[in-house]
Design brief:
single chain; alpha/beta; Barwin-like endoglucanases; 3 domains; 24% strand; globular
Amino acid sequence: NACAADLAARVEAGQIRALAVIESDLWHDFPDRPQLEKALEKLDLLVSVDFLDTPLFEKADIGIPSLTVFEAGGIYVNQEGRAQQVRPAHTGGLPITVTGAGDHPPRTFAPNVPGRDMPAAWVTAFCLAGQAPPETDAQMTAWMRYNFAVLSDLARMDADGVRLFAGGKTPIAHEATMPEKPEQCLELLLAAAVFGGEPMSDYSQCLRELAGLPAVWMDRADADRHGIAAGDRVGLGFENGEVSFVVRISDHMAPGVLVVYRHPDIDWQPRAGDTRYNIREDRIRRIEKA
């Protein structure tokens, strides 16, 4: 969010006239949408390189499709900080419904699939920078090690990978200072779900259908104080509009806090603009009982 805000400010100040965005949806991480859209209008050139049909890709002056990691391969860093080589799982191409024009698929036997000439995003990035991309995995790994100190241990990567980050336990905070908030307000936290909240899930039609209705999580005491029950539909009033949610109640939440997870059917960025927001209690109203 801070990066998107800084980027928008620099574009508005005329410090950036052309922008190439590589596999990134600038709207995904809670930016100020109106500010960002206004800033992008001032660019002389916007280039988007992506394998997803994002709003930014649609808006770009030049859209360059790229391969997914499943098609191009690469290096994946897992939850324990271990880098592992990822080999391509399949070769991408145009679907049979396109190449066959609704009829029998083409009777051409070859190891290649039609439409597989798209490069990986990093190849396009090198070309946009006017540089020749590395020709082998070893050359690419050497380039990464040279330019990013955190990846220096890639030289020792074997079949089991290599730990890039030392293991350790994060100290538990036994006491915490709660940030001050105005009286008669609840703190609204906008969060990304652990599963299903990343960009690839956001643009998956089948997962969107399973997402359910947008929901707000409340502490039971807060819900009881407002006469709200689980399953009720409530409206949260922001400065420039109201957003409705289905209520979910938890006995394990901090009092005075509301949590809303990212949902494809909520266009909340123009209303909230950040991941934390103080909402007045008199702007929480029940629209419909469960």
